[in-house]
Amino acid sequence: METRKYLEALDEVMSKRYSSKEYCIGGYQEESICLQYENNGWIVYNGERGNRYDEVKCDTILKACIEFIRKATQRVEDISAMENELLISLSRVA
Running DSSP on this structure, what letter comes out for residue 89? Predict the structure, then answer.
């Protein structure tokens, strides 16, 4: 599946719960959870004061999407619901 499909599905899930000011898919954004491709892998991190904190490197886009969701909320119920929504969205475009 194309990377673009994963990123669109992730944005669809996130936009239902969060303002676009709280997350950034594809690069850095101040005071946001960020996801970007770098050096043959995906990095999920918190962007703040021009720096990247709590970086997690992922070898696949799916792992990065899941990590992104887990950084967005610590509530187990929300994580589970959002992960399910992501997978359902991905299955519609497959």
Answer: H
Sequence ranges of the domains in the chain: 3-93
Residues of the chain with pLDDT under 50: none
Residue 1 vs residues 10, 13, 37: alpha-carbon distances, Å: 14, 18, 16
Summarised one tens digit per residue, pLDDT across range 40-63 is 899 999 999 999 999 999 999 999
The contacts of residue 73 (CB under 8 Å, 6+ apart) are 17, 79, 82
- Give me the residue label for tokens 């991905």: 90
Residue located via tokens 């944005």: 11
CA 7, CA 19: separation in Å to the nearest integer? 16
